[in-house]
Amino acid sequence: MSLTLYMITSALEGYMDYTAKVIKNARDVFLFFTMDRGNEEQIQRRQLEFVAGGGYNLENIVKTDFIYCPIALLFSEKFVKKVGAVLKEELQFFPCKLICKEKSLDWYIAKIIRRIPMIDREASTYTTLTDGEKVLEFPKYRRDVEEKFFIARDTENIAYYVVSEQFKNLCTENELLIGFEDPEFSLCIKQ
């Protein structure tokens, strides 16, 4: 049986304007939330703040439940209240502030805990750097993963993550506004 995998995106039209950026400590946030390095106690002591992209305003930001940030995943308070307990084995949530049009909103930044070997190493495309190191450029995802999961990072290339059909259904059942697309979509655009 072929497994359906997704990337999560903003569900609002023109989502390239629907991102967020971290205000300070971007390196520490990236290392902890994306690369799984750093100190959790230090992260918890910090006031984590993000600025919503230009596409957001105070009317549409309260409708969405996910905002993409290049170095982290941001989820609404509603998302955490409705499905946070179900996802506790796969996502760890940390409170943060999201600034939109100079108003501070309560949101959560999430760290993906679950790791599954999901990238097909043979079918993926790699770039060779000048020092000879190979770096994953266009991932192809395995569709034969046996484990059930909601959201997971790849075990080797931990910057890459996907969500399952189970995650998508959970969001739909709880009326959460999150977009879903093929994780290899960017590969299709570049070819």
Structure report:
This protein is an alpha+beta fold and 191 residues long. It has one domain (5-117, 144-190). 19% of the residues lie in helices and 33% in strands. It contains five helices and 13 strands. The protein has helices spanning 26-33, 40-45, 77-83, 165-173, 185-190; strands at residues 5-9, 20-22, 49-52, 66-69, 72-76, 91-100, 103-112, 115-116, 125-128, 134-138, 151-154, 161-164, 179-181. The chain has a six-stranded mixed sheet. A five-stranded mixed sheet has the order 8-11-12-1-13. A hairpin with a 5-residue loop joins strand 9 and strand 10 (134-138).
Biggest sheet strand line-up: 2-3-6-7-5-4
Total of helices? 5
Strand content: 25-35%
Counting structural domains, the number is 1
Instruction: Report helical residue fraction.
Output: 10-25%
Which sheet architecture does the biggest sheet show?
6 strands, mixed
Identify low-pLDDT runs: 186-191
Give the topology string: H per helix, E per strand.
EEHHEEEHEEEEEEEHEH
- Quote the distance from N terminus to C terminus: 27 Å
Task: Find the count of extended strands (DSSP E, 2+ residues).
Answer: 13
Average pLDDT, all residues: 89
Structural class: alpha+beta
Which of globular, elongated, flat, extended, rod-shaped describes the shape? Answer: globular
Rg, rounded, reads: 17 Å
